[in-house]
Design goal:
Shape: elongated
Number of domains: 2
Structural class: mainly alpha
Radius of gyration: 25 Å
Amino acid sequence: MSNLIKPDIKFIKEIIGSGGESLKRCYQCATCSVKCSLSGDKDPFPRKEMIKAQWGMKKELLASPDIWLCHQCRDCTTYCPRGAKPSEVLSAIRRLTIVHYGFPGFLARLVNQPKFLPLLLLIPTLLLGFAILVREDIEKSLGISEQVSQKIVFASTTIFPHWLLNTFFASLSTLVFIALFVGVIRFWLAMKHADGNRRPAKGIVSSILTAIKNIIMHNNFAECSTERLRFLSHSSVFFGFIALSVVAIWVITAPINPLFQKGLVYPFNFFSPLKIIANLGGVAIIGGCLLMIYSRLKEDSTSTYFDWAFIGTLFCVVASGFATEFLHYVRIDELRYPVYFAHLVFVSMLLFYLPYSKFSHLIYRTVAMVYAEYSGRSSGVPGKPEDEEKVFTQNLGELAKKLDTDLQRMNTEEIFRH
């Protein structure tokens, strides 16, 4: 049985332009699949993905969960005898997958082009500014009279009342949820169709629980042997974000939260348990971002605007939050209000563009991991090191790497002389 392949030249150029410029160096030695500790014995990656990328097989790649099972630990890149950097190629394909399934499509394309960054910054600024501008009119029309208690020492509560911020971010979250839901459903259906709609090998609930457990424990990152910094940086950002999310949800639900029996006193004092959790979470995120920056500057990696935009936005969110807290304690009123407004703008950017930025990796990777469990794809991960065929292929790959290195050291005359 033969298959007709129609290479998508445009897609190949998009991969190369998204950080996968080393794609053409691959000569299919399979060293990458052998060295990858996350690749199973059945349908191992990333060798087959490199083949499909070279042939421009867009449909197959964008519907592949294996693209997301790769955690870009760069083990494959480190041992590739040709410097093909499979991890960066798969990272480029993941970015194109997000753009492909993003809803609405035009917004996904805008977020991934640096020339539109000023516009992307302007949109949440105008929306938040408009909300504050009409605040008094809404309060009058709805009969809202929010008195500032003596307990509340942050006078800007009258400028940024809780009802306004809760309504603004709740509306924003609803739009983000709808966009993510549409994108995820598209991705799930594409994976099922690519698998021929086969019967599931595992229940959906069990698959979700297994995937969430692996994500929380960071089991897959721990398998990486080349870049241990990635495990530490991602763990710091992940758990720091969870800490900040818990505190934020706690504050938002204050009116119906039985634990706030005496009412919400906000902002919290410095020694409040919630303030301590928030500060520790912020420190963890700052530390994780700095480790990510260090790792990208230290290594010969092809980090793109897609990577730097997310790290920069996340860093600005936390840094502006700490700046707001500091200005609050030292009572510099002329600065703390605009800094707090800037903090809200950065938070809006992080949330509003979540379905189209690298932040959405958390969602798409989770969905892919769930599908891998659901379809039985991950049953053989990780492969057994004593597997004879795998050991043979590993030795062959190491031999090819050594041969390639030796040839590079020899000039043309030495080659002919030998």
